[in-house]
Design brief:
Helix 6 links the parallel strand 8 and strand 9. 36% of the residues lie in helices and 17% in strands. It has three domains: 209 residues, Rossmann fold (3-Layer(aba) Sandwich); 160 residues, Rossmann fold (3-Layer(aba) Sandwich); 194 residues, Thiamin diphosphate (ThDP)-binding fold, Pyr/PP domains (Rossmann fold), CATH 3.40.50.970. Belongs to the TPP enzyme family.
């Protein structure tokens, strides 16, 4: 007869999570690490007595971290998993009302970006004895609905634990989704507050330490043969590296493939850093925020090899950029592989690239049978080298030291250059973190990173407010790295509370606030669509008699416990950055920037619908441009 142990549902859940381990495949023989780096918790009446007591009991085995905002703590947990390339993760627990609904945005972000996070919101009483409980959402047509049902559309797996024995299958299923490369995303286990406290005789074996194996799907032979045939038929292939390259730790395989076969590489936001910025075949960013080198080659390519990317509209120029090319999609997720509308190779990126290279003769000079290893046209990869070299020179010029005229504000490229210069001659181990607005476009083009993980930009969901919380998650995952959060004033005002958390936890960040006094990115998009400047920059908004407040971001950050200062120009900013690097705590550096100037080089069309009818001539002209650009759009079968 199997041994059992009597535990509450909350105790069993926490004990199970604490027992999970994951091995480091790059360090064979090393001790496995905990799969969960801890649990972020903001307690309320829906979780403090149940899971809160269990977390206290097992606090030595599974750390509990306190945050200041539920959405922010989930962003932090997601960034932690992203920095660990999905190999380690965190859980988050909230109370039953606004705490739970605050998780929805973060869950959507994790869902879009294919990142694991375990959400453990409290829920209403299964007994319904105190019905309706404080914060309960009541539906007159369905008594079983609670606020947590809003998490169903943005969860990859959802379960409501209404009986203790349910944990015996719900937890293994949850872990499978969190650690499966194809299913990976947010998991929600809703925990009714009475059930959290119910006891049950759980099998003791359920809590034995387990080492989770991270699956690497092998390519199927028929798909591999079709992929090799597609590549051999090409003369001008272009590889688009997405986040799947990083999550599969396939950077070395990517580099070997492009060198052996003469295939130039460009990168999505999620894939940036997969190939070092100065590699001769590295064309830089692609798409709407792309470099001229990458986008020119994209328009001339006859085959696009999309590796680990969802091919969202910013990458494809709303399907206008690769219209002439055939497609080969290498992706662990069949749903994502099908978006290219071409040949699919559904497999782990590292295994797929290595296997495809062998099919093409990548193991040596000749394949079996004496055929020469396949390569792209020599003129094509030489063109790529020249284009990449030219773009690197342009980046150096755009981000280099320059003296601005009196009264001229810097723009993002000049700030980015100063951030990178501030590290001196030492090798870069910085991790830059960003999310929405103008900065992701500028960083995608201009940030230089030589190692996977040095570029951490959330642009699948483009979520304002992710930046500082995400930076904290990156720092918790990599405390040895300098984590630099670059954030606009709009995003800073949306969510800045985790500055205080970073100080409390001793996880130092450098936060760079670029203040263009409003939503500069959307203001420019508004005008590009023919609209008048309206409700984006503070000066264009409805205001009371006192006008827009002059916001002192440095004073605000200092009030949260950080060191902070405002820089009056780029020279002062660079000096402030050196002080920030030397600081022992979170340091915020603010600088005023130009809301109108951006990097003109590169980019391509992005579909934003313009009104068909307007009394404004500017809108009518923008609509005519829109209709012309629509003609370039490739309609996928």
């Amino acid at each position: 007869m199997s041994q059992t142990i009597r535990l509450t549902v909350a105790q069993a859940l926490v004990r199970y999570l604490a027992a999970l381990r994951v091995a480091d495949e790059e360090a064979p023989g090393s001790a496995p690490e905990p799969l969960f780096g801890g649990v972020f918790a903001i307690f309320g009446h829906g979780n403090v007595a149940g899971i809160g007591e269990a977390l206290h009991q097992y606090r030595d085995a599974l750390p509990t971290w306190r945050a200041h905002n539920e959405q922010a703590m989930a962003h932090t947990a997601i960034a932690y998993a992203k920095t660990h390339m999905r190999r380690r993760m965190m859980a988050c627990t909230t109370s039953i009302g606004p705490g739970a609904t605050n998780l929805v945005t973060a869950a959507a972000l994790a869902h879009v970006n294919r990142l694991p996070v375990l959400l453990l919101p409290g829920d209403t009483f299964v007994s319904r004895a105190p019905d309706p409980v404080l914060q309960q959402i009541e539906d007159p047509h369905d008594a079983g609905i609670s606020a947590n049902d809003s998490l169903k559309p943005v969860s990859r797996y959802f379960d409501r634990i209404v009986a203790p024995a349910q944990l015996l299958n719900a937890l293994p299923r949850a872990i499978r989704v969190l650690t499966d490369p194809e299913l990976c995303g947010p998991v929600t286990l809703a925990l009714p507050q009475d059930v959290q406290t119910h006891a049950y005789d759980f099998p003791l074996a359920f809590f034995e330490p387990k080492v989770v194996t991270l699956r690497r799907p092998q390519p199927a032979e028929d798909q591999l043969a079709a992929a090799a045939e597609a590549v051999r038929a090409a003369r001008r292939p272009l590889m688009v590296a997405g986040g799947g390259v990083l999550y599969a730790k396939a950077s070395a395989a990517l580099r070997a493939f492009c060198e052996r076969h003469g295939v130039p590489v460009c990168e999505t936001q999620a894939g940036k850093g997969a190939l070092a910025w100065d590699h001769p075949l590295q064309l830089g960013s692609v798409g709407v925020t792309g470099s001229p080198a990458a986008n020119t080659m994209a328009r001339e390519a006859d085959l696009v090899i999309a590796v680990g990317t969802r091919l969202q509209d910013f990458t494809t120029g709303s399907h206008s950029l690769f219209g002439q090319a055939a497609a080969l999609a290498i992706n662990v997720n069949g749903f994502d592989a099908g978006k290219a509308g071409g040949v699919e190779l559904i497999a782990d990126a590292r295994l797929a690239l290595n296997a495809l290279s062998r099919e093409l003769g990548g193991g040596g000079q000749y394949e079996a049978g004496g055929r020469a290893a396949w390569q792209s046209d020599e003129a094509w990869h030489e063109q790529a080298r020249m284009a990449a070299r030219g773009w690197r020179a342009t980046v150096a010029e755009l981000t280099g030291t320059r003296t601005l005229e009196q009264g001229v504000l810097p723009y993002d490229a000049e700030v980015i250059g100063a951030v990178q210069r501030s590290r001196g001659d030492s090798p870069s181990h910085d991790i830059v973190v960003c999310a929405a607005g103008t900065l992701p476009a500028e960083l995608h083009k201009l940030w230089r990173t030589g190692h996977p993980g040095g570029y951490h930009v959330e642009y699948g969901y483009s979520c304002m407010g992710y930046e500082i919380a995400g930076g904290l998650g990156a720092k918790m995952a990599r405390p040895d790295r300098e984590v630099i959060v670059m954030v606009g004033d709009g995003s800073y005002l949306m969510m800045n509370s985790e500055i205080a958390t970073s100080v409390m936890l001793g996880r130092k960040l450098i936060v760079v606030v670029l203040d263009n006094r409003g939503y500069g990115c959307i203001n420019r998009l508004q005008q590009a669509c023919g609209g008048a400047p309206f409700n984006n920059l503070l000066e264009d908004c409805l205001q009371g008699p006192l006008g827009a407040p002059p916001i002192d971001f440095a004073a605000h950050a200092a009030a949260l416990g950080a060191h902070a200062e405002h820089a009056g120009n780029i020279e002062e900013f660079e000096a402030a950055m050196r002080r920030a690097r030397a600081s022992d705590r979170t340091y915020v550096v603010c600088i005023d920037t130009d809301p109108a100037r951006t990097t003109k080089e590169g980019g391509c069309w992005w579909e934003v619908a313009v009104p068909e009818v307007s009394d404004r001539e500017a809108v009518r002209l923008a609509r005519a441009d829109y209709e012309r650009n629509k003609q370039m759009q490739k309609v996928l079968p």
